[in-house]
Design brief:
The complex is a heterodimer of chains A (76) and B (467).
Chain A lengths: L2 H16 L7 H22 L18 H10 L1
Helix pairs in contact in A: 1-2
Chain B lengths: L3 H5 L3 H9 L5 H16 L5 E4 L1 H16 L11 E5 L26 H8 L3 E6 L36 H8 L5 E6 L5 H6 L3 E4 L19 E6 L2 H11 L24 E6 L8 H17 E6 L6 H16 L1 H5 L23 H22 L4 E5 L25 H6 L4 E8 L5 E7 L5 H12 L15
Helix pairs in contact in B: 3-4, 8-14, 10-12
The chains are: A mainly alpha (76), B alpha/beta (467).
Chain lengths: 76, 467
């Protein structure tokens, strides 16, 4: 984890704990901390795949390959 | 008339023939399966609620119609179980969660409606991992009903999150069941219990009335003894529904009549890092698949499928259960880790979620290009046989679900079928999966049926503990 990641983790931990209905004990806090580390590592894995400005998110609720969509729409 | 065991372990197709020959009635089948659910299913922690009153009413109606010559199709009069996240009028729908044990809905889920219209008989709401596993469970004891026991060896887990659907079909407590999958929740319990389990193309089956964990990844699908039975169920379950928008863009499902001439792909290193019996079963299955088609090795595009899927499910799951978490209701869930794990996703940046969805677009197109020439990609369904009922998933060196094609397939909305291909240590089943391109559902099921016409693994039945 980079220094930036550590700072981000602390900030996210504070935000997550603020959403809890009660104070967490040490073991519970460790679980949340571990999950946040995991999510940051996964985001960093995503960053290894370059994206262009024009790369769009999947159309919400419709992860159909563009090629299939073109065929379906062309067929109509 | 066939004896109890013959009926309990018969396929949907066989039971349909017996019903139409008047060798058995739907009321008799319903009575039999209700009794087995109570005696065996409960012992396996596979049952949340028996729906006796509704079942007997539906069975009597099915019998009356058959007497009058009205036949609604292959599921007419056949009992089934539904994962307990599908809303059902008049019965609790617990989502597997202890604090929701009294939850009821005033409407039926779309798939419950469709099964009723086909005159299938709902006999039970089946057990599941709480919240379909979205709360971050790390061991099998994460359900309102306790850990789901495997029908082949109750010392081992039934898999999740459709645990009860898997165990109940395998134990002959129902001939078919409905499961749901966001990431592995149909294929893993099907594989662990030696069943055919089918994950449809995203959007093929309406999720109206189903618990939402991840709106862009949740799917509903059939679990049964054979691929042919799954196909019969899918013909009933699939179809457009204005109450679930993604169903409106899927083409109509047509059966694939082929019995050979399939084009299979394997991917490089698909059998690495799996248990020896899993690798042996996979290679034995490839030999059979070569009898009904060609097998070509390909390379799958290298992309962070699992990371993208994990962030999407985390963000959508946290959004779906935000009020539940903030109210402290998660404190009453069964697994201690489920009380707090999902809090972590409440602080997930929106930019991370959007990045994951942008990567997903690339993944969908790259996977489509790689697998479009083939009917199915073949792989071990899971790297391990069913784990011990008391084992923590943390004991595994690397999360096993990161070592299958499942993460990529679920991220990209691809259909998949689990099929039994043998047995490993402790008498536990070993399975393969067939994963196809979007809308190749019928082709995969036809390939599965052709495979099972040449194998007998799906005919094996477990020795069950006394109920």
């Amino acid at each position: 984890m980079t220094v930036t990641d550590v700072v981000e983790k602390e900030a996210r931990l504070t935000l997550s704990l603020s959403k809890s209905s009660r104070p967490l004990n040490a073991a519970e806090r460790a679980i949340v901390e571990e999950q946040i580390s995991h999510l940051i590592a996964e985001r960093n894995a995503l960053r290894a795949t370059p994206l262009e400005n024009g790369d769009q998110p999947t159309p919400w609720l419709d992860p159909t390959p563009a090629t299939i969509l073109q065929e379906v729409r062309h067929g109509e | 008339m066939a004896n109890e065991d013959q009926l309990a372990f018969a396929t949907v197709a066989e039971l349909g023939r017996l019903l139409r020959a008047h060798d058995v009635t739907s009321v008799q089948l319903t009575t039999l399966f209700l009794e087995r659910l109570e005696r065996i299913g409960q012992a396996l922690n596979a049952v949340v609620t028996l729906t006796q009153e509704l079942a007997m009413e539906q069975a009597r109606r099915a019998d009356e119609e058959l007497e009058r010559g009205v036949d609604r199709g292959p599921l007419h009069g056949i009992p089934y179980g539904a994962k307990d996240l599908l809303a059902t009028i008049g019965y609790p729908t617990t989502w597997g969660m202890a604090p929701l044990r009294e939850q009821q809905f005033a409407f039926d889920a779309a798939v419950i409606e469709r099964m009723a219209a086909a005159r299938a008989v709902l006999v039970a709401k089946l057990a599941m991992v709480e919240g379909a596993g979205g709360f971050g469970y790390t061991q099998p004891n994460a359900a309102l009903t306790g850990p789901g026991h495997n029908a082949w060896n109750p010392e081992h887990w039934a898999g999740g999150s459709s645990s009860g659907s898997g165990a109940a079909v395998a134990a002959g407590c129902v001939p078919m069941a409905i499961g749901t999958e966001t990431w592995g929740s149909i294929l893993v319990p099907a594989a662990y219990n030696g069943l055919a389990g089918f994950r449809p193309t995203f959007g093929l089956v309406s999720r109206y009335g189903a618990m939402a964990l991840s709106w862009t990844m949740d799917k509903i699908g059939p679990m049964a003894r054979t691929a042919a039975d799954c196909e019969a169920m899918l013909q009933v379950l699939a179809g457009p529904d204005a109450r679930d928008a993604p169903t409106l863009v899927r083409p109509k499902l047509h059966a694939d009549p082929r019995r050979n001439g399939f084009r299979f792909a394997t991917f490089v290193a698909s059998d690495s890092d799996v248990e020896p019996e899993v690798a042996a079963g996979y290679h034995a299955a490839l030999d059979v698949l070569r009898e009904i088609g060609s097998v070509t090795e390909i390379e799958l595009p290298r992309l962070p499928y699992e990371a993208a899927a994990s962030i999407i499910i985390g963000a959508e799951g946290a959004a779906a259960f935000e009020e539940f978490l903030e109210a402290g209701t998660a404190d009453y869930l069964t697994a201690p880790e489920d009380h707090v794990s999902l809090l972590a996703a409440l602080s997930l940046p929106a930019t991370d979620y959007v990045r994951a969805q942008r990567i997903r677009t690339k993944a969908i197109d790259a996977m489509h290009e790689a697998i479009a020439p083939f009917d199915a990609v073949v792989a071990p369904a899971y790297p391990t046989i069913a784990n011990h009922i008391a084992a923590s998933f943390r004991e595994e060196p690397e999360s096993a679900d990161r070592r299958t094609i499942d993460g990529a397939a679920n991220l990209c909305g691809l259909p998949g079928l689990a099929l039994p291909v043998g047995f490993g240590r402790n008498g536990l089943p070993v399975s393969i999966s067939l994963t196809g391109r979007v809308d190749s559902d019928a082709a995969i099921l036809a390939a599965g049926a052709a495979f099972q016409s040449r194998t007998e693994w799906h005919l094996a039945t477990p020795t069950l503990p006394p109920g």
